[in-house]
Amino acid sequence: MWVWSKSSGTLLGCADCVRPGSGGRFLLPEPTPGYRLSALRAETDCLGTRGEECPDMGSTYHSLHYHWVCSTKERRPFIRPEWRPRLHEYLGGTVRGLEGVPLKVGGVQDPVHALIGLKPTHCLSDFVRELKKATSVWAAAQHERAFEWQEGYSLFTVSASLRETVSRYIEHQEEHHRKRSFKEELKALLARHGVNYDPKYLL
């Protein structure tokens, strides 16, 4: 864990090297630009307070990917084909604006699915709140005045080995929904990820 100065924002060293009372605060290091999200690395050597490289601090890596699923309020079929691609593009741009990586976005008339890469510093609830707020305001202003997202949402972690599988699943949403409803789809996703739920609050 790195320790950063509260006043200057500069790196003081690692948690093992910095003396108590030095005014630091614990934060994960910022990723180095140019690395893929699946293997971001912070290339900062710890010199601590001793002016020596800390033997206990290695590089930091992370692979944080999420499958986000959200429906329109009351599952109303707001997302019509003529503007659906623009919504998906706007959603992807919003993810980038929130410092995430939109790997795939898809959906049909009521639910939307997105495969998103995030940093360790992201707060998931804050990220999703801002994503829903920005896209609902845009959709209401540009296409459907009554547009709103449902209050809740579903969010599942995705391992590196399953990213391509989830991406293809999102890409072929229209095909999937010819065979089963969103409710059936969501129940299957919750069961696959071991999520308990009360059926009366499912949607």
Please provide a written account of the structure.
The protein is of the alpha+beta class and 203 residues long. The protein has two domains: 1-62, no CATH class; 65-195, Transposase IS200-like (Alpha-Beta Plaits, 2-Layer Sandwich), CATH 3.30.70.1290. The protein contains five helices and seven strands, in the order ββββαββαβααα. The strands form two sheets. Strands 5-6-4-7 form a four-stranded antiparallel β-sheet, sandwiched between helices. A three-stranded antiparallel β-sheet has the order 2-1-3, with no helix packed on it. A hairpin with a 5-residue loop joins strand 1 (2-5) and strand 2. Helix 1 (84-97) runs antiparallel to helix 2.
Q: What is the topological layout?
A:
Elements (H helix, E strand, L loop, with lengths): L1 E4 L5 E4 L9 E4 L37 E7 L12 H14 L3 E7 L3 E7 L6 H19 L11 E5 L4 H9 L1 H4 L5 H11 L11
Antiparallel strand pairs: 1-2, 1-3, 4-6, 4-7, 5-6
Quick take:
The protein has five helices and seven strands; from the N terminus they run ββββαββαβααα. The protein is an alpha+beta fold and 203 residues long.
Distance between the termini: 40 Å
Helix content: 25-40%
- Please, what is the average pLDDT? 79
CATH architecture field of the largest domain: 2-Layer Sandwich
Please report the total strand number as a whole number.
Answer: 7
